[in-house]
Request: fold
Amino acid sequence: MIRSIVSLSAIATWLLACATAAVGAELVPDPPHECEYCADWGRSREPFRVFGNVWFVGGGLTSVLITSKDGHVLIDGGLTQTAPQIAANIEKLGFHLADVKLIVNSHTHYDHAGGIAALQRASGASVAASPAAKRALEGGGPTPDDPQFAFGPAHNNFPAVARVRAIADGEILRVGDIAITAHFTPGHTPGGTTWTWKSCEGSHCVNVVYADSLNSVSADGFRFSGDATHKSLTAVFEKSMADVAALDCDILLTPHPEGFDLDAKLASRARDPKSNPFIDQNACKVYAEGARQRLEKRLAEERAASRAASN
Ligand SMILES: [Zn+2]
Reply:
């Protein structure tokens, strides 16, 4: 695994953010995470409205703000070093971090959970998660049953999140008139969760799906098809994919913006500002099917590796 040295600019940004925090802004970020893709994932982006009360407040990674007059919900906290960016994007849209009442997460890897601790400290929001995700969030890193656990703590770990409320599969969480439903979609991580809710522009209401990562990515040596140390994840993962494909889905959002072709959609909206290219009733099915094909390929590779090992 190629490891890169954390860039000087990331450290400079962090020091600046700490200094800003000391003179009045409320978010004190944790130290920047070092990783191969962190510079790209840490890039900033103008925040924008996706639809109705749904706003993109991330950068190279997705964070979504759902707003109501009685408080907001934030999904995903990016990297430790992007927490100040998310906070700034929320303010830029005219909202306040202090009005974020609930923070939830797609999955407990450092690129989506790293900023949650700082965002929670700064906002006072509660954090809710599936029981498996709660263990990882409160432990500050993936649990041993995570396919990426063997990457090790220096690569994997993130600031631990305090006081995570465990929720049930299918539970509806409410802030003001926002009601988001948790759908447990394990596979990429044991506690992975897909979130759904309704958003309206006047009488035009749509079903929004924040689908978790469904990629069969692991540390070296992990087998999705199971081995002596753990059971096969195939059935569990395929069910998560089928569940996402079956959701009422007008708008798909995903933890990595590439998962819903964000740049192409923004370009298309710039060409025709009256259109909303985020609305696509097929998007969840296409997303799940792509993941299913990649898992199938991965399982074939695992079978080939076993045959090679036994020859
Ligand atoms: Zn991940």
